Amino acid sequence: MITRRSKRPRRRPWQELRERRRQGIFLFPSLLTTGNLFCGFFALLLTVDHRYTEAALAIFVAMIMDLLDGRVARLMKATSQFGVEYDSLADVISFCVAPAFMMYSFALHDLGRAAWFGAFLFVICGALRLARFNVQTGSVDRRFFIGLSTPAAAGVVASLVILLGGEVAPRVVRVAIAIATYVLALLMVSTFRYWSFKEVDFARRRPVETLLVVVLAVMVVATMHEVFLFLVFGGYALSGPVRRVVVGRPPAPIPVEAAGKDAPSSGMA
Q1: What is the pLDDT of residues 18-43, one digit of tens each?
Q2: Does this model's pTM top 0.85?
Q3: CB–CB of 123/97 below 8 Å?
Q4: How far apart are CA 139 and CA 255, in angstroms?
Q5: Which domain, by its residues, includes 32?
Q6: What DSSP letter does each residue of 26-73 carry, written as one string?
Q7: Is residue 68 part of a domain?
């Protein structure tokens, strides 16, 4: 006996695209992500004009935008897969391509192939870091990131340019910068664990002394921002290897279903 399969109308690709378009996007988080992307593109334009300090500041503004879009999306309950993918694409420009191009133009362009290959390695390792973050599997500990986040790596590059005042450094310093570029690239794809600060509750009541510490920190930033920024981002980049030496390798996570991102951006992807 031959059974006839029920015929269902085939859905054409353009029909699926139309339905997806009708779903719409969450405007405000997407505007913040667009601001992040614009700052990365603007940093590239400033680098072409050899305005390295302004380009570094544009990267820092992009970091603020990247931090805000995820927080705003969670507060508005406006998370979506579109936001996740859009945020990752913006991060590739702002925290991978822009810092690498700025570092190449600033210090690596006359050091040979090995130096400029470090800039390319920074880009590809940053892209791999973002891709791994999006498809992260296993038992996810929200307190830590696996590998140095791309905004943190970009922050090291930008703070170093600000520390040097955007001026061309001696050859010895530029060689050290080339080595640091390789190290940052490898840290992004490493298995070192970095504190994510996701568990910090800023809305909780704090002792009065906490306000004094915050005010002193703001004063330090205002008076010695060049040194302070580099120490903060450089120290954070080194905290992963140092933690591995002190604490040791963590136990392997128990495999579970793939854990998706809960927001368009965590701010430190």
Answers
A1: 444 545 566 777 888 999 999 999 99
A2: no
A3: yes
A4: 6
A5: 27-198+206-247
A6: -HHHHHHHHHHHHHHHHHHHHHHTT-HHHHHHHHHHHHHHHHHHHHHH
A7: yes
pLDDT tens digits, one per residue of 57-96: 999 999 999 988 777 777 777 667 787 888 889 999 999 9
Supply the DSSP string of 130-196, one letter for each residue: HHHHHT--SS--TTEEES--HHHHHHHHHHHHHHTTTPPPPHHHHHHHHHHHHHHHHHHTS--EEE-
CATH number at 168 reads: 1.20.120.1760
**What are the pLDDT digits (tens) for 221-241?**
777 778 888 998 999 999 989
Residues 55/43, Cβ–Cβ less than 8 Å: yes
Domain count, the chain: 1
Q: Is residue 72 part of a domain?
A: yes
Tens of pLDDT, residues 98-122: 999 999 999 898 888 888 899 999 9
